[in-house]
Amino acid sequence: VSAAPAAPTTNATRFICSGEATFLQAIGAPNATFTWYNVTNPTRALQVGAVFTVSANFLINTTNTFRIDSFLVTQTVNGCSSAPRLVRVFVLPQVNPVRIPENIISVCVGGFATFDVDTLGTGLGSSPGVFIGWYPSPVPGNIGFYPSEPTIFETPNLYHTEIYYAIVQQRWNLGGGQFKTCASTPAEAAVNVQGVPSVTVP
Question: What is the predicted pLDDT for the residue at 197?
Answer without folding.
Answer: 61
